[in-house]
Specification:
The structure is a single chain. By secondary structure, the chain is an all-alpha fold. It contains five helices and no strands. The longest helix has 20 residues.
């Protein structure tokens, strides 16, 4: 129940068009932890264009698969936006 509320709040903030794919493929804890709390319009557009991105690992425990997909989504989002801030997985020099 709490996870559903968090997904809905995230989807509203980021203006996610494909809510079903968001909840099916990605981990909300990682999305909240590694993406900006206050995204720009451009950052929102990039994330929406990447919804559906899957990681290389599509077999295993559900949590593992979701984490793999989420990691790939975040990495591609960082590359496209150039946003490697303090909440990012990798930091620039």
């Amino acid at each position: 129940m709490e996870t559903d509320i968090r997904f809905r709040a995230f989807a509203e903030k980021w203006q996610i068009a494909d809510f079903d794919t968001l909840t099916r493929l990605y981990d909300i804890h990682d999305l909240e932890g590694f993406l900006p709390a206050y995204p720009t319009e451009d950052e929102k557009a990039v994330l929406n264009s990447l919804i559906g991105t899957e990681g290389a690992d599509t077999y295993g425990y559900m949590d593992y698969v979701k984490n793999s997909h989420t990691f790939e989504l975040i990495m591609q989002w960082q590359e496209r936006t150039g946003n490697y801030d303090g909440r990012a997985l990798f930091f620039t020099e």
